[in-house]
Amino acid sequence: MHFLLRHPDYISEKPSGETFETDDDSSFKFKIHQTYDLDTTSDNYYRKLPQSIIAVYFWMLGRWDQLENWNFWPITVLSIIASILLVFIMQNMLIAFMTGVFDETKSNVKQAVLKFRADLIAEYEAIEKPFGNTRGNPR
Q: For 17, which of 12, 34, 47, 49 could close a Cys bridge (C-beta 3.0–4.6 Å)?
C-alpha cells in the first residue's frame, strides 16, 4: 500500500473533495468543501512507510479514530503495544483454561471407565436366561 499510494498522482488517482450544500428554508446558504493535501500524512496515510504500516495494522482491528485526533506518537506506540499484549494475554488465558479442563478430564477418566465397566457387568448379570435355559449358569 505504501508503494502504491505514496504518490497517488503517479497512478492518476486523485481523491475528490465533495461539496455539500444545505437545503433548507433559512436565508443562510453555505457550502462545505473538503480539500485534500496528499503530501501530509493526515490526509494520505500511505505517504510515509511507518505510517502506512500502522494504518494497515489498524485495518485488522478497525480504524481507531482517537489516534487521528491526538496525533501524538506515544499514544500510537501504546495502542500497538496494548493490542499485541491483549491478544497475547487472552491466548495464554485460553491455553491455561483448556489445559486445566484437559488435566481434570484426564484425572477423572479412569474412574469413569471403571464405573462404565461395573455398570456393564451389573447389567449383564441382571439379564434373565433366554429361551428357558435350565442347565444353570454356564459362566
A: 34
